[in-house]
């Protein structure tokens, strides 16, 4: 692969990282804002789906671009957490009576854990 192609793949990966983190920021912010009156904020589902899709795309770009060998176990852990957060958000939107402060705390906590795994697990 040429250095120009690698540069393009690296740029694409970095753009996906930014979108991925912004998705998680929307999930965390939207969840924390509604802790007093427990409900799922409108944009939280969009943030969760953005984080989920960009995470999957990021792994694909890393693999296609042969940028480095991703840690498959770390990716699996992050994917499971992302799926759990997304499921909690979907259920919370469909059944708003189930949403409590603890429910929102689970979403916020799992979101923080997912970001921490990304940063701390090397």
UniProtKB/TrEMBL annotation:
UniProt KW keywords: Membrane, Transmembrane, Transmembrane helix
Parts of the chain that traverse the membrane: 12-32, 44-63, 75-91, 103-121
Superkingdom of source: Bacteria
Protein name, as recorded: Integral membrane protein
Originating species: Cellulomonas persica
């Amino acid at each position: 692969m040429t250095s120009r192609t690698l540069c393009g793949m690296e740029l694409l990966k970095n753009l996906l990282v930014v979108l991925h983190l912004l998705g998680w920021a929307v999930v965390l912010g939207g969840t924390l804002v509604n802790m007093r009156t427990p409900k799922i904020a409108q944009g939280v589902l969009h943030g969760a789906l953005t984080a989920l899709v960009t995470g999957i795309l990021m792994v694909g770009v890393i693999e296609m671009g042969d940028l480095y060998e991703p840690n498959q176990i770390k990716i699996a852990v992050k994917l499971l957490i992302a799926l759990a957060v997304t499921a909690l958000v979907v259920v919370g939107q469909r059944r708003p009576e189930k949403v409590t402060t603890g429910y929102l705390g689970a979403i916020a906590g799992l979101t923080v854990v997912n970001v921490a795994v990304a940063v701390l697990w090397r």
